[in-house]
Amino acid sequence: MVTSVRKAKRAATPTPALPTREVILDTAERLFAMHGVDSVALRDLAREMNLTAPSLYNHFPSKQALYDAVLDRGLRPILEAIAAAWHPGALRAEQMRATVDTLTTHLATHPHLARLLQRAMLDQSESVQKLMSRWLTPLYVEGIAVIRETAGDAGWEADEVPHLTLGLFGMVFAYFTNAAALQSFVAGSGDPMSPQALAIQRRVIEKAIYRLLGPLPRGAERRKKA
Predict the structure, then answer these.
(1) Under DSSP, is residue 20 helix (H, G, I), strand (E, B) or coil?
(2) CB neighbour burial string for 63-96, b if at least 16 within 10 angstroms, e if fewer
(3) Nearest residue to 80 (alpha-carbon basis) of 1, 173, 23, 143
(4) pLDDT tens for residues 202-226?
């Protein structure tokens, strides 16, 4: 009788749901950003999610495959957004605002991505550099391609475009890379990921991009040519 009751209790106790692929990627993104990929073992990830390390292999065959998946999920939407950002010629304000909104929303949804990217860029290991080259090279090339003619119409010289491109990337990512410091050291900053704070950040980026790549002020074109 007692055995039957125990069996009934066990049967009535719901089995905890196993983490989904997205939960695993979220956890990996956070730990890789905090400690670096080489300092995080699969057992660390498994312990964080109350799993055994072998169970992670149901989703990813290796830590390298998991890291690649984190970068793919994080950077592919950014590459696609930049490719569709705006066309050569004069800056289109509405299109620019849509791009800024897409990038800001994506980085806010994955708040550890910017820090992970910063850490990865400083990592000199061959495996990490190979992955970063796979993603950052097309990202940089695409960024230059969509900025080049717009920058020309805004008065930038051709040899300044690569520097401008790096500066724009840095401006978009820096807020999210330094969000924790902003909250800790800037009095009254509040939650940097709150809707209000993100709305301000969107405005800042929009104004900065428009002033950098928008139409030259009246008379500036003539002064530049002179």
Answers:
(1) coil
(2) beebbbbbbebbbebbbebbeebbeeeebeeeeb
(3) 143
(4) 999 999 999 999 877 655 554 455 4
Contacts of 150 (CB under 8 A, 6+ apart): 86, 88, 89, 90, 91, 213
Cα 82 from chain centroid (whole Å): 13
The tens digit of pLDDT for each residue in 56-102 reads 888 888 888 999 999 999 999 999 998 888 666 668 888 889 999 99
Is residue 37 within 8 Å of 71, Cβ to Cβ?
no
**Cβ–Cβ under 8 Å, residues 144 and 80:** no
Q: Is 112 exposed, middle or buried (0-12, 13-18, 19+ CB in 10 A)?
A: buried
Rounded to an integer, the average pLDDT of 166-180 is: 90
Place of tokens 């491109």: 165
Residue 206 backbone phi and psi in degrees, to 5: -60, -45
Res. 136: pLDDT tops 50: yes
Give the integer Cα–Cα distance in Å for 62 and 68: 10
Question: At 177, which amino acid appears?
Answer: T
Q: Are 154 and 168 in contact (CB under 8 A)?
A: no
> Residue 173 CA to chain centroid, in angstroms?
7
Residue partners of 103: CB distance under 8 A and separation at least 6: 78, 81, 172
CB contact at 8 A, 209 and 100: yes
